[in-house]
UniProtKB/TrEMBL annotation:
This is F-box/LRR-repeat protein At4g14103-like. Residues 27-75 form the F-box domain. The gene is LOC110757559. It comes from Prunus avium. It comes from the Eukaryota.
Length: 410
């Protein structure tokens, strides 16, 4: 008997009973939630984690099979030191996992199907089958990202995707996907959001997708332009409201005299966001509904080296002259201060994080010559400009801060 116990007995104490105070039992309230609620919670997780909940208890065994979202992502290791044999095994395990999940989940509808993976030619049939299953289960959102190191290996989107009547959101990201929509007629009748990220976009196939989606409202094209000297691209969508074009050039060092032309015919377009390093030629038709525009050039150096930059920028700004909100990178503003001060009637101008002292001077100088009609000065515009002035003054700038402040009070 230990000394502590002996001491307790001598003092008339009692030996503590370890079993007399069992820990408080925690009630499992989550498992009592309805299946619909549990499935909604699990829909925010990658599918591999949702499936793992099946080991929690009998209650959870089949809950994952009714989750409306399927999210499969596999990123191939790219490190020089990675084990290729192990990586192939992991890739094979990923493919098998997707097969099993799709075969076991039953006949319930699929709301979102997300598949990001690398692939080889032997995987074509599998991927085709997975996408077909999602379409057959009335998929609403399809998010596909395929990559391969073999540039000659292209994955052609199955035709049945374009025939899907339930698809509302389609996201395609790849260095190897080719688009071959039907030659004629309307397709993707319910599609409202289309995001495409592709290297070297091809005129014909891309244009067919845009023009034959009757209710498309949101379009994003994130592409890498190639070395072709001529590219004519037409974007025509009767219901389009938001357009984003992120189009860097493959080789922005060297010759910048490329003939890239984008014809935009979207009568209901309200928002446009353009990001490039080499400015393309933009022609607008029926752009009277535009409310907000953002123009951003990645590199000031490229703008200086592009022979036709000023003409293209002026034509672009003339095409969007009805906007109420305009955001410009400093390169566009600085190179086109005269056109900006005369031709744009805006209620809010955002200079961007790269705005310079010289850029502000250009704008104010131009606006003072034409009066308040050139720019509707209000609190939304004046306050940010005042902060920029004060920040420049604190940094030791030598330009006439008082003159700027006087103009703001005009």
């Amino acid at each position: 008997m230990g000394s502590r116990v002996k001491g307790l007995l001598l003092m008339g104490g009692k030996i503590p009973n370890k079993k007399s105070n069992p820990p408080a039992r925690v009630e499992d309230k989550i498992s009592k939630l309805p299946n619909e609620v549990l499935c909604h919670i699990l829909s925010f997780l990658p599918t591999k984690y949702a499936v793992r909940t099946s080991i929690l208890s009998t209650r959870w065994k089949n809950v994952w099979a009714f989750v409306p979202n399927l999210d499969f992502k596999y990123v191939e290791a790219k490190s020089y030191f990675f084990n290729r044999k192990k990586d192939k095994s992991t890739s094979a395990g990923f493919l098998t996992f997707v097969d099993r999940v799709i075969s076991l989940r039953g006949s319930s509808d699929i709301k979102k199907f997300c598949l990001h993976c690398s692939y080889g030619i032997k995987d074509f049939a599998r991927i085709d089958g997975w996408i077909r299953t999602a379409i057959q289960h009335n998929v609403v959102e399809l998010d596909l990202c395929f990559e391969t190191t073999d540039k000659d290996l292209a994955f052609e989107l199955p035709q049945f995707i374009f025939m899907c009547k339930t698809l509302v959101v389609l996201k395609l990201r790849s260095n190897c996907i080719t688009n071959a929509p039907p030659a004629s007629g309307c397709f993707l009748l319910s599609l409202k959001i289309l995001h495409v990220r592709v290297e070297y976009p091809v005129n014909d196939s891309m244009e067919k997708i845009f023009s034959c989606c009757p209710v498309l409202e949101d379009l994003t094209i994130d592409g890498l332009l190639g070395s072709d000297d001529v590219l004519n691209f037409k974007i025509s969508a009767p219901e389009l409201k938001t357009l984003r074009l992120i189009l860097p050039h493959r080789n922005w060092v060297g010759d910048h005299d490329h003939q890239y032309c984008f014809l935009i015919n979207c009568p209901k377009l309200e928002n446009i966001d353009l990001k490039q390093d080499i400015l393309s030629k933009y022609l607008f038709k029926n752009a009277k509904s535009l409310v907000k525009a953002s123009l951003n050039l990645f590199s000031h150096a490229v703008a200086d080296q592009q022979p036709d930059f000023s003409n293209r920028a002026n034509a672009l700004l003339a095409g969007i002259s009805n906007v109420k909100y305009l955001s410009l990178s400093a390169h566009v503003w600085e190179r086109n201060e005269e056109n900006l001060s005369r031709g744009i009637d805006t209620s809010l101008v955002d200079y961007g994080s790269t705005c310079t002292e010289r850029t502000l001077c250009y704008h104010v100088g131009g606006c003072c010559h034409v009066g308040a009609a050139a720019l509707q000065v209000n609190n939304n515009f004046a306050a940010p400009l005042q902060r920029n002035i004060e920040a420049l003054a604190e940094d030791g700038s030598t330009w006439e801060t008082k003159a700027m402040q006087t103009w703001l009070a005009f």
